[in-house]
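Lab meeting, action items carried over

1. Structure of the two-component assembly. Owner: GW. Status: complete.
Input record:
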Amino acid sequence: MEYEATIGIEIHCQLKTATKMFSGAPCTYGRKANTAVNEIDLGMPGTLPCLNMEGVRKAIMACTGLHLTIDPLVKFDRKNYYYSDLPKGFQITQQFHPIGKNGFVVIDTPEGKKKIRINRIHMEEDTAKQFHLKTRTLLDFNRSGVPLIEIVSEPDMHNGAEAQAYVEALRQTLYYLGVSDCRMEEGSMRCDVNISLAPKGSDVLGTKNEIKNMNSIANIGKAVDYEINRQKEVLDAGGEIYQETRRFDEKSGTTIAMRRKEGTVDYKYFPEPNIFPVRLSPEWIKEIQDHMPELPEVRRERYAAEYGLSAHDISILIANKEISDFYEKVMTFSKNAKGVCNWLLGDVSGWLNHHEQNIETCALKPENLAKLVQMVDDGKINGKQAKALVEDLMEGKDPAQAAKEKGMEQVSDEGALREMVLSVLAANPQAVEDYRAGKDRAVGFLVGQMMKASRGKANPSIVNALIVEELKKLQ
Amino acid sequence: MIKEMREDRANAEKNVREAFEKAQALQDKLNAVVTFADIDAQLAALPEDGLLRGVPIALKDLVSTKGLRTTAESNILWNYIPVFDAHIVDKLRDAGAVVIAKTNMDELAMGGTNLSAYSGPTHNPYDLTRMTGGSSGGSAALVAAGVVPMAIGSDTGDSVRKPAAFCGIVGVKPTYGRISRYGILPYASSLDHVGYFTRSIEDACISLHVLAGRDDRDMTSSFLEVPDYLKELDSDMHGRKIAVLGNVVKNLKNPATIKVFNDLMDALRERGAQVDVYDFDEDLMKAILPAYYLIANCEATSNHSNLDGIRFGNVVKGETMEELMKNTRTNGFGPLIKKRFVIGSYGLFEENQERLFRKAQKVRRKVVDAMKECLKEYDAIMAPASDNPAPHLDDSSADELSANYLIVENYMAMGNFSGYPSMTVPMGFDGDMPLGLNMTCRPFEETTMFDFGKAIEEITGYKDMKAEVK
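Predicted assembly:
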């Protein structure tokens, strides 16, 4: 039978704030366990939450960037359940009044651009991290209380590529806004993908499965496509899909059942009594929205208009915000947009990958890359020579200086070249005679002699012009 | 008393030690103390000045004290030593107060008798066979017995104001948000107030001056400036308007209470106050207790979900983490607490929440609206804090469906619904047992409340009244 897959995605994203959502403890990653924790994060009796307005600010930025309508009355609720990673026995979240509603992102599909709707964004706090060992479980509360936003999509996606493009689009936006690190591998961005299959044309959705544990965006596409196929096979064989949570196993590229969901859990949500509703002033919201960093979609348009780059080049450039930011710095010194782009995405990126460095921390200076491109454009060095200068460039050296040290810079000084030309003419009277006799190819011979004499450093076009000029004088 | 003690600088240490020793000496009789504090360290670190310098005080055992066991009279916290001080502990220490003890209370403050305490009930200093009332019974007993001039309690339904009535002392529950709750083990967050006991209105003024004020760690704490309550004290009753809560007064049965209360109202009239009987809707008044129970238990069951044995407390192990939590909680809570958790959980279930928890919130709003209406015209709502004096420890005669029980014994939760300042002061005696009067004023008008308290204190002469423990 032919099926249509329906996919909805919930994303948890850690907000980039100095301190936690409801406590003054620092937000860190990779720090020694239980050293970024205070009594609030541990749910000690008598502690109270205190709302981090920086978290609210970041959530507003996310909502704005993703076109959601912001609710200026911020309210929180409790989600009650017992679990060892949840110190208070409840999570403070926004069940009844999410900060943002009804937004969207636009993704590229083979059929063209497609709008994926976002149902809501709400703020909440992260849980502690568990490490299950053979005989015991360790708990790290550093993560407990870290600000999160949960982004809930509408079920608008239908295959792995769309799901992946949606997550990538979200990641790019949130990353550009500085809202989150969006590091899936570190868990600062976590995706739960819901997939259900129904016979094509049916308006009743099938039983959905939730996939967790995808630690890269590439895995999302793989996991979704695998799962669609798996469900299809089960259904075709007359089997039944049970509502369950599955995890993606990277090694085998398959999804594995974790637990079956029976009925829904009653989380007994009710308004958090310790946080009075906070009324955000329209001025404050506007102030945030007026000072948003540039969104990737805006940058995309600007690059096309300002630099005239191709859509393909732009996509690759802006996929990595740091490379893209660096590109703009180089462009303040250069006029060759395409040339700089090629260098950055080609040799520079290659070097960075090979040396496991990134553009922000490496020694490359924007003005030097601009200079290198200019040197090639001016014909001072050729492309081959330029490639030989990459290592120096990446070490922070001035390419002109490096070219000189390597003795590869073309001599373009007219005075010096003219002297050399005169001596070459003097040494080759036959060629001069041939030219007089109308044999133009003698010029080529003389240029060759010049290059030989200058050991390849003479600028060929200047040399050519000078030789012709001097020959004419002799006529 | 506080002023005298503070100014008796030469004997600061002696006063504190005497209080400490008296508390120890009375412990067998009163059972008011859970844990005695280290007074030497505090005496050594006494600040040069402060409104409470050298004044011995006691804290209800739900005030988080760094390094000092804080049990909330629950088995589950019997070994719990906090790593942080409550906001008021910082304030009291800075003001020079010396904590001599952590006091007995109903388990997790859930009760009005002090009978549910894990270490057994506190005995009333006026009659050891009687209860102090609760939940802040231990603090009330120490103040009534003259051990300390001030002790901290907490008030979610009437947990300061009821024991104050039963022990013949002043019990203050200021406006919600006036005193930070940071570090106070919760019962029901939207109803919880930090309160305290004293034996005089002046001491009540000084104490609130120290305790009140904005704390950024409690988002519900007020930014309003804290007045100098003592300086503003004015017992002139001319032009003051009192609403006597008709629903309570007409359901009173105890002749002694009726007489004492009426005489006091007459005396206030003589001093120039206008005293009128004001009736609230009777059904609304009867709905206060059930609404209170629902809201309080719903919030409580969530608030105490952190007591799971994972990070602190009296752990009972299990094969799995889920089992450990189950075992710890089964073993750790008394039967009354479990009952309340079950009720609270039931009230929060999705299918029940609208007709239980949310409905209770609606009742709450209606009660508050009615109070607001009344206080538009009147400066205070007054009524006896209880019909009868403190019951005997083994008394279980209350008819829980009578108007006398539903309204007279439980109306004070109005003050928690609204968060309005409310205070109990001694008004007389029934035999040897004290009787209390309760008053409630407009939000953040503690000054007005103290004015009434001062006038009553002048009329009754019940200032620095101490029980002689026999």
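2. GW to write a short summary for the group page. Key points so far: The radius of gyration of chain B is 21 Å. Residues 391 and 397 of chain B are 9 Å apart (CA to CA).
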